[in-house]
Amino acid sequence: LTPPKDRAEAGALRLDRLTKTFTSRSASVTAVDDVSLDVRPGEFITLLGPSGCGKTTTLRIVAGFETATSGGIQLDGAPIDRTPPQRRAMAMVFQSYALFPHLTVGENIAYGLKLRRRPHDDVRTAMQIALTSMNLVGLENRSPHELSGGQQQRVALARALIMQPKVLLFDEPLSNLDAKLRGAMRAEIRRIQRRLGITSLYVTHDQDEAMSMSDRIVVMNKGRVEQVAAPARIYFRPATIFVADFIGRANFIEVAPEDVGDGSAVVHALGNRLTVPAHPAVRAGGAGAYLMIRPETISLEPAAEGGIGTVLRSTFHGHSVDYEVETISGTLQVTEAGPDPARMIEAGTNVAVTLNPDRSYVLNGG
Ligand code: ATP
Fold first, then answer.
1. pLDDT tens digits, residue range 57-78?
2. Is the CB of 163 under 6 A from ligand 1?
3. Number of domains in the chain
4. Ligand 1 proximity of 56 Cβ (cutoff 6 Å)
């Protein structure tokens, strides 16, 4: 398994205004609605969103298992809309692994190359490399059912990689694994993907998975793209309330129109006066803008007088404490990481609230 020789010409994927409408006698559903995306060679991009938002349908159109109603796909500048799936230089890894149960591990991995009638020696060499790099040496004569879930997923990945695709497509590949193994496999997939420099499109509804693996995340909602950006940007600079809410937890406080400027807002909130960056779509003096505050960017201090809120509840998680604080702007979610047991704040305590302007953001609601 070697990295592609010419990186510039290896796996630039373009989705151009893809739309897919499923029509039956009783209804019509637009599963993918005008989705455009440029994936750079070697980039790892995740399609993230709630169930039914169109992630899988988008991936299946790219793979060629589904035909777009309109729009097109290009690979390294050439349209591939009419290219059958097996000729697209792509390989897909599924949630269900989709291994052939009656074939051994080795036969499963070699299957695609044998189908293409590659010389026996070449197949054997490629398989040895695949077995070694996926940590499967010694398991080649086993049946898939004699493997653990993690091993089966590695076989599925080896089977995809041996074809030396330009693009790897992943459809929720880790959802059948337990939490610990899932974490290990995330790192392993990413390590191999980086080493080989294969362009990857990865579907998940797990925001933590998307955050920890991706170069960029595409957040989808109802068939449409809400935002495309690097994980930290998605988290701290969400384009929409939907993105802010879907990725982690967030507090929202409405901002008075007179406080909103172009590119930033001078916000008066919870006893703080802060200059907070704003999304480009937020217009000076515009109504319906909200201040977004992540719970772990807030700090609380017990206040004998002049407190701005009252702690309603505290929940201890070991690594953190969650507080619910009643304020005039509604209930505020606050998370304190690495809590000091001696300084935990009890319910009923009056508190002052400090916000962090750099890690807060102003965006349009609705
Ligand atoms: P999940 O995480 O649940 O798999 P998803 O984001 O991958 O969801 P899709 O599977 O792409 O979503 O489905 C998007 C929408 O299209 C849903 O409303 C779904 O019911 C509909 N849909 C998907 N495939 C078909 C089909 N073959 N015929 C009719 N409707 C479909």
1. 999 999 999 999 999 999 999 9
2. no
3. 2
4. yes
